[in-house]
Each structure stands twice: as structure tokens, then as C-alpha cells.
Amino acid sequence: MNAIEQARQAYAPTQFSIRTNRSVEAQLFSQITARLRQAATGQPTNFPALVAAVHENRRMWAAMAADVADGDNALPRPLRAQIFYLAEFTETHSRRVLRHDADVSALIDINTAVIRGLNSRGVA
What we know:
Elements: H1 3-11, H2 21-41, H3 47-69, H4 77-98, H5 105-119
Helix pairs in contact: 2-3, 2-5, 3-4
């Protein structure tokens, strides 16, 4: 990198993104849901991509389950219980998807509903 480019970068205006936990979670859900949708369109020829997307979704939901199971979690108990139930359903349904016994659309629908909730202006 030459001196002019270094000067440009040093004096360029910086932008700080103000991100909330909700917006970060919504972005993660959106990215994983997009991968699920993309992999689902290529079935059955794109089964490895579907396996990878389902695995990534399961990991995210397992992390969510662990988070809401923590006694120090600030979410209301009923909401924590609902999220934990969705994590259990996601795990079970994912196994069925990978065995070709179920469609991935239920996982996409759940994630989409969560994204809507995270993007809403309600208090969390």
C-alpha cells in the first residue's frame, strides 16, 4: 500500500455501526435461513449443502437453548420456555429432514417468525 492510500484510509471518515443484540441475532437467523432456503431449492442434488445448512441451524438453536436455560437469562420465563421448545422441535425435525422424512420448510418458517419477532419494535 502506498503513502497516498495509507493517508486516505487514515483520514477517511469512520462509521460506527450501532448494533443491538437483537439486530445481531436477527442477522444470524437471516443468514442461516437464507442458506436453508438456498439448499432446499437444490434438493436432492444439493444434499451436502442441505446437510451443512441444517447443521448450522441446529448449532444456532442449541446455543439459543443453552442461553435460555441459564438461570441468569433476563427474558421472561414463558418466553424462555417457548424458545427452548422451539430448539427441541428444531432438533427433532432436523433429524427427520436429514432422513428425508420431512421437509425443511418448517425450519425456515420457524426462523422467519423469530426474525420477525427480533425485528419488531417491542420491548425485549
